[in-house]
């Protein structure tokens, strides 16, 4: 039986930390060697970290990337494992590349052919596309090498690798960002590719957070029938080793021989020859990690994004305002899960409009989470603002100006604590608020990281309910789930005075932002035309706020940030 033992190193790099990234790659190599693996996969652009963005224009960065690769190459001497590791290759231009390393030498380099330039991707800004296929031969066993987007292309390079060259295993090193449902979608898509081409596929994905992007890992291997052989854990580093039966390809092709009739033009290909894989005494039982539920998946993505942003940027502790509402409650829970209760500080900042219930709920939440809190009232400072502005306002009636002053005092308090103690300020606004501008610039938007900025309000509640169930007790107080959402900036205020019910609002926002429907199409879905018009008007009017809001973890198909590049100066309006 023809088998190849494959190890997928699902690792979390830090952009620009060449020493740390190489250390992780070396450890994975040692483990793969101990397991007698024939092939080791390390994610796309792992050596420099991904995405490097405009660091890719710095020649010093490119040289450091090459030096780090050389250090890893040296460590492979006397290790009988072929390693495929992502790095940036350059000569007259720059390439997103994979180095094939064996026994202290770079045996070959594959340059990514298909460069994504959509959503958060901007690879055509930085890289030139490769133009040659790469195939590894372990005796008679054929392994094709691809990088990320190559596997998502409708035909090539799989058609040439499999139908043209007879590849029995395709490996893909990737840095595939997360959005809700992406792990299942990705696995389903690639498994169907495996079945369509009758080829085993091993998918090695990056894990961890980089600014607003989070990578879920969820690496996997499927056979020539498209059946799952093994799956890594999600949102954590993992080492997955599996024996892939390459004879399975022949059995499948004999019963379903459609590959015989596929016409393939000759594509330029480099072939690297290695020894036949040695037969292993013991066949490994592959591990298949259980997939997360939707709410668990979102929660772990938010935890991963926050944890890595804090740690990779040199922070240890965070601080946030606790209002007794759902948003700040969930953010506090995420922060504790990501960093530990000892590294999370909560601040109660009551005003004359803050209800007793809000103070009780915020205090109970903090007690349940085990975090330290401070109470800093805003009343006197607020009164001072009003007195200072009295002559200028000339007895004008109160409006949102006075409400926003309160929010900005609170933002000022939090930033003062950040300056004094070095704590990172977490903002607590959700995507529904940010979309409609239901937030105060330099107030509740003031901070360093917006944890749930890409989470709609209705999902905030769903995740919170799941979190309490997961913990097996009521950490977020029950009253927080049932009381009407309110900013408490004036008497008897509720969110629904200015916003449609969140179920309606989020439905419209999802259709407009995530799915790209226009106003008329949204109305045809059953939404009231006047409500749709109001919501879209709020979205357009709030672009300047979103541009100045802190970054936060992307978990949706289209998040505000790199996904959303709308001009602020813009007279276009859709007509219903």
What does this structure look like?
- By secondary structure, this protein is of the alpha/beta class.
- It has helices at residues 18-34, 59-75, 149-152, 158-164, 182-197, 247-255, 294-312, 326-339, 356-369, 379-393, 400-421, 431-436, 457-471, 478-482, 502-514, 519-524, 529-541, 543-548; strands at 3-10, 39-41, 82-90, 94-102, 105-111, 133-138, 141-147, 169-174, 200-205, 207-210, 213-216, 220-222, 228-231, 238-245, 269-274, 318-321, 344-348, 372-375, 424-427, 449-450.
- Helix content is 38%, strand content 19%.
- The strands form 4 sheets. Strands 13-12-9-8-7-6-15 form a 7-stranded mixed β-sheet. A 6-stranded mixed β-sheet has the order 5-4-3-2-1-14.
- Strand 16 (318-321), helix 8 (326-339) and strand 17 form a beta-alpha-beta unit.
- The radius of gyration is 27 Å and the shape is elongated.
- It starts with a strand and ends in a 28-residue tail after the last helix.
User: What is the number of beta strands?
Assistant: 20
CATH level-1 class of the largest domain = Alpha Beta
Give the oligomer, counting copies of the same chain as homo and different chains as hetero. Answer: single chain
Measured by DSSP, the beta-strand proportion falls in 15-25%
Report the total helices.
18
Approximate shape: elongated
Low-pLDDT regions: none
């Amino acid at each position: 039986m023809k088998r190849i033992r494959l190890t997928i190193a699902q690792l979390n790099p830090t952009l620009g930390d060449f020493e740390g990234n190489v250390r992780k790659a070396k450890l994975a190599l040692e483990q793969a060697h101990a397991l007698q693996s024939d092939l080791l996969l390390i994610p796309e652009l792992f050596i420099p970290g991904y995405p490097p963005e405009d660091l890719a224009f710095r020649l010093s960065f490119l040289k450091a990337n090459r030096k780090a690769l050389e250090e890893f190459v040296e460590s492979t001497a006397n290790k009988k494992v072929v390693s495929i590791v992502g790095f940036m290759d350059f000569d007259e231009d720059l390439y997103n590349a994979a180095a094939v390393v064996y026994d202290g030498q770079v045996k070959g380099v594959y340059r990514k052919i298909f460069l994504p330039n959509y959503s958060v991707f901007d690879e055509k800004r930085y890289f030139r596309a490769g133009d040659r296929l790469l195939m590894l031969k372990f005796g008679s066993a054929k392994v094709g090498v691809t990088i990320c987007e190559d596997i998502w292309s409708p035909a090539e390079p799989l058609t040439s690798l499999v139908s043209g060259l007879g590849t029995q295993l395709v490996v893909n090193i990737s840095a595939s960002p997360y959005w809700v449902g992406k792990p299942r979608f990705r696995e389903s898509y690639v498994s169907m590719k495996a079945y369509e081409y009758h080829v085993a596929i091993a998918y090695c994905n990056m894990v961890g957070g980089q600014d607003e992007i989070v990578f879920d890992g969820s690496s996997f291997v499927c056979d020539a029938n498209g059946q799952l052989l093994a799956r890594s854990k999600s949102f954590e580093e993992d080492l997955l080793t599996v024996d892939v039966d390459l004879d399975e390809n022949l059995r499948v092709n004999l019963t379903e021989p459609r590959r015989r009739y596929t016409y393939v033009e000759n594509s330029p290909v480099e072939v690297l020859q290695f020894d036949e894989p040695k037969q292993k005494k013991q066949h490994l039982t592959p591990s298949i990690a259980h997939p997360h539920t939707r709410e668990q998946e979102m929660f772990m993505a938010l935890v991963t994004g926050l944890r890595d942003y804090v740690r990779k940027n040199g922070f240890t502790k965070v601080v946030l305002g606790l209002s007794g509402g759902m948003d700040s409650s969930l953010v506090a829970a995420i922060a504790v899960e990501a960093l530990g209760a000892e590294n999370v500080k909560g601040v109660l900042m009551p005003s004359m409009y803050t209800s007793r219930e809000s103070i009780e709920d915020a205090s109970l939440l903090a007690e349940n989470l085990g975090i330290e809190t401070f109470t800093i009232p805003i009343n006197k400072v607020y009164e001072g603002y009003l007195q200072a502005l009295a002559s200028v306002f000339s007895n004008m009636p109160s409006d949102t100006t006075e409400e926003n002053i309160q929010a900005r005092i609170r933002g000022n308090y939090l930033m003062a604590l950040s300056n004094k103690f070095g704590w990172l300020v977490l903002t607590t606004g959700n995507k529904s608020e940010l979309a409609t501008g239901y937030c105060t610039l330099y107030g509740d938007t003031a901070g360093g990281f917006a944890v749930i900025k890409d989470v709609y309000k209705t999902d905030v509640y769903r995740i919170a309910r799941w979190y309490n169930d997961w913990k097996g007790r009521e950490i977020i107080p029950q009253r927080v789930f049932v009381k009407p959402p309110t900013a408490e900036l004036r008497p008897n205020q509720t969110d629904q005075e200015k916003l449609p019910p969140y179920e309606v609002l989020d439905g419209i926002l999802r259709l407009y932002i995530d799915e790209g429907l226009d106003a008329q199409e949204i109305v045809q879905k059953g939404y009231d035309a006047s409500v749709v018009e109001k919501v879209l008007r709020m979205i357009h009017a709030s672009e300047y706020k979103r541009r100045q809001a802190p970054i936060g973890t992307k978990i949706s198909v289209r998040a505000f940030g790199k996904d959303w590049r709308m001009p602020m100066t813009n007279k276009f309006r859709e007509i219903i």
